[in-house]
Amino acid sequence: MNKNLNASLKHNEPENLAEERKKMAFDKTNFLLIAIGMVVIIIGFLLMMGPSSTETHFEPDIFSVRRIKVAPVVCFLGFIFMIYAVLRKPKTNN
Q: Quick check: is 81 in a domain?
């Protein structure tokens, strides 16, 4: 009797795993897209870095195109990509 019970439990495992995967909000692709979005956002913030002005020395690089226009656009695109990655519905295999 114990062998039959163990055999029936092992037989139902793949079905239970498939059901649990359907319950998951994210799949592997979602996590990969989220990671890519995070990298793009980090790159945007790194593009914003640079020397700062002090009381005695003015640094004109704070108004460079890279820091004022390019970096915020890169960050914005990273945030939009993250929103897509979170809202993307995992495909189900039927």
A: yes
What digits encode the pLDDT tens for the residues 39-86?
Answer: 999 999 999 998 888 889 998 888 999 999 999 999 999 999 999 999
Residue 10 forms part of a structural domain: no
Nearest to residue 36, comparing CAs of 78, 3, 70, 7?
A: 78
Candidates 92, 1, 88; CA nearest to 36 is 88
What are the structure tokens assigned to 45, written together? 């913030």
Are residues 89 and 37 in contact, defined by beta-carbon separation less than 8 angstroms?
A: no
Collapse the DSSP code of 27 into the 3-class scheme (helix H, G, I; strand E, B; otherwise coil) and give the result: coil
